[in-house]
Amino acid sequence: MLLHIPEVLSGESLQQVQQLLEQAEWVDGKVTAGTQSAQVKNNMQLPEDSPAAQAAGHIILTALGHHPIFMSAALPKRVFPPLFNCYQGGMAFGNHVDNSVRTIARTGEHIRTDVSCTLFLAEPDSYEGGELIVEDTYGVHSVKLPAGHAVIYPSTSLHRVEPVTKGARVASFFWLQSMIRDDSKRALLFDMDMNIMRLRETYGDQETIIGLTATYHNLVRMWAEI
After folding, report:
1. For labelling alongside 105, which of 58, 125, 170, 215 has CA 20 to 30 A away?
2. pTM surpassing 0.90?
3. What does the CA dihedral 54, 59, 64, 68 come to, rounded to 10 degrees?
């Protein structure tokens, strides 16, 4: 399931993250690339232990924890601390698949990468190129979102970042391990949850809607790994 998550950051929180990144020192993005990815990766990145990265990451994780669409779609169990990258001057990242397991350097904790997330931090009209291209069974998808908006997609997907030919594309990226490992089950639960929310808005907590809600939670109970 590829899904646009609107307004993860907005207003003051978006400005705070942008200001932190403007003042930070960037390094070669290959520092977090695997053997295969390093051959096609050309960008800049903030070190994981950068104070700016940690402060900005905290703002993002707090916002995600309060975003109902993200929580419903991802059903996160563990979230890798957000990383940050920048593409400019023709930089790009060729076709690759994300590593199946990531290790948090600070804690040594391992996270299975079920879902990948890109949070755009520069307005799309401030740079040319830089589209995130995701390939799945439904075709090829091109993603370039407003600052503060995010996209999530299965980490099994082949994807790339097109060359940035003008301006700078700044974004946060990270992975999460979901309580629901299977993408098709997550998609089914998300659709069910969204429809229950719409029914409640229209009809209130009628008995049949309460019954559907119970079915949703029983499915989560059946499939969740916690």
Report:
1. 170
2. yes
3. 170
Cβ neighbours of residue 85 under 8 Å, at least 6 residues apart? 29, 43, 44, 45, 46, 170, 171, 173
* Whole-number Å distance between alpha carbons of 70 and 36: 30
CA dist 78 and 111 (Å) reads 7
| Cα–Cα distance, 222 to 40 (Å, whole number) | 40
pLDDT tens column, 10-32 = 999 999 999 999 989 999 877 66
Q: Which of 200, 124, 135 is CA-nearest to residue 167?
A: 124
Q: How far is CA 101 from the centre of its chain?
A: 16
User: How far is the C-alpha of 54 from the C-alpha of 97, rounded, in Å?
Assistant: 25
Beta-bridged to residue 141, according to DSSP, are 134
Paired tokens of 105: 């350097």
Q: Phi and psi at residue 84, in whole multiples of 5°?
A: -140, 135
Give the pairing of strands 110-112 and 150-154.
unpaired
pLDDT tens per residue, range 90-111: 999 999 999 999 999 889 999 9
